[in-house]
Every structure is written in C-alpha cells, then in structure tokens.
Amino acid sequence: MQTLEELHNHYKNVRQRIYNAKPIAKKQKPPEKRIIDVKEAAKIAEERRREVEDMAYREYVTKNREIINGMKPSKCKAMVLKIAEKHGFTPEQIAGPSRDRALVKARQEVMYELRMMGLSFPIIGRFVGNRDHTTCLHGYRTHKKYLASIAASEASGLRVDTECQLPTKVEATGND
Question: Across-strand partners of 15?
Fold first, then answer.
C-alpha cells in the first residue's frame, strides 16, 4: 500500500496530465507592511495615478487612432497648451475639476477649438479631463454664443469687456 504522500503526488501528476494544469503554487507570504509618512504616500499615489492615466491614454489612442481622423494627439495637446497659456493656466488645470469662471471659459474655448478641428464630442471629453460628451456639447455651444455676441457687439459699436463679459459703449475719439 502507498503512503499518503505518494498518493498525493500521484494524483497531482494525474491532474496535471489530464487538465494540463500548472502545479499548485504555494501561498506566498503577504508583503510586510511598512509605515510611510503622508508626503511619501501622496507621492506614491500621484505616481500611480499618472501611470494609470498614461496607460489609459495610450490604450485609447491605440484603439481609436482611426476615429481621431488622422489627427495626431500632439496637435490637440499643442492647441490645449496654447489656449491654456493664453488664459494663464496649465493644461492640467484645464483638464482638472475646478469650476472657476475664468478656467471654465478657457475650457470651453478648448472644447470649441477641438470641435473646429473635427473631433467628436466624446473624444473632446477625453482630452479635457474625461468629461461627458454632453458637457463638451454645452461648452462648444456656450463659446459659440460668446463669439457671436462679440461679433454682434462690435458691429453695433459696443465692445465686450473680456474680464466680466459685459458690453460697454465705445467712446468716440477725436475732435467733434
């Protein structure tokens, strides 16, 4: 009669032959928990978040290269950077969650310009902080109305103050 250990090894080999399974691995010890300070934890979390975002972006671009209509993402990023610098923000702030009025106006301008480049609203949403396509549609329409109001006010002799966006009368210059 065979010992219990011999039977165990025999059935282990039979299972491996029948199911072509890998041998059962021994349980690994969980990694030792180490105490880290808050700054180090925040730094690690930020690095992981950036890695995940970069991987997701690369995966998205790889999958949807034909959707981007032959446009290089670098063109879109360059356009976002140009508008962000024009308004005094960074691209990270444009894509961020802030609802500050000046930042929202800059974000809406980015949405408008990306739409003028031929991108769809879902793709624009991914470029501008993973926002919903309806948010991008609203931003596009809002900036379009803003541009129309500037054109109308200039045609009627008014100018739009870019700080508060209120029309003011243009003073006549020169001698009467």
Answer: none
